[in-house]
Amino acid sequence: MRRLINSIPNILTSGNLFCGCIAVVSALSGDVKTAAYFIFAAAILDFFDGFVARLLKAQSPLGVQLDSLADMVSFGVAPSAIIFHVMSVAQLHIGLELPAFTPFCAFFIAVFSALRLAKFNIDERQTTEFIGLPTPACTLFFCGLIGFDIFTAKGFWVLTALVPLFCFLLVCKLPMFSLKIKKSPGFVKNYGLQLLLLCCAIVFVALWQLKGISMTIALYILFSVIKRVGITVRL
Predict the structure, then answer these.
(1) Mean of the pLDDT values across residues 87-112?
(2) Given 27, 42, 136, 164, which is the most exposed site by the fewest CB atoms within 10 A?
(3) How far apart are CA 39 and CA 79, in angstroms?
(4) What are the E-state strand segments in the chain?
């Protein structure tokens, strides 16, 4: 029975990987909305696998490695496939002779996501906060962009600018607060930013659906920058 219980987090992680695989196939087939929905499902499973592992005290080295491998597909390859398809379609509306390989720059997201995940696995400092943008946050930002009119020339140039920016954010040394909330004294004081971000996310998604997700991630990055500046000033 205990072996079965210990397997539950890994089953959830495997579900994350399965959703990521479907998202990749959907994106490369041109169905980016379906791809985004499966990525959202993968993100939910990614959150709960760690939560359940801690709840059941079923953490294991296997689970750590499996989680990173699943995240590489769901939050590295899958978003790259979405961006690649959107840029390929949008490039047709530009009216300029650009190299045919230009949309392949989307896969730099996958490369830098791999670097981000590898650094996370060997960096013992990232227990209470992140250093660099977490891969799920990067992915959810790009999925949310589907709600905007990005299959255009303007969308192409916006994505061309955002890809290198988010590649940098994935591996930069900017501390970013964790969204995992634990019971502790001074709950509101310690988790004020998380609670504020959650409230904003609910409002944004209710008002703007997919667009609201991108806006929430942008706000998360802004809050992390503000928090970092605040710490620097106090020091």
Answers:
(1) 88
(2) 164
(3) 8
(4) 129-131, 175-177
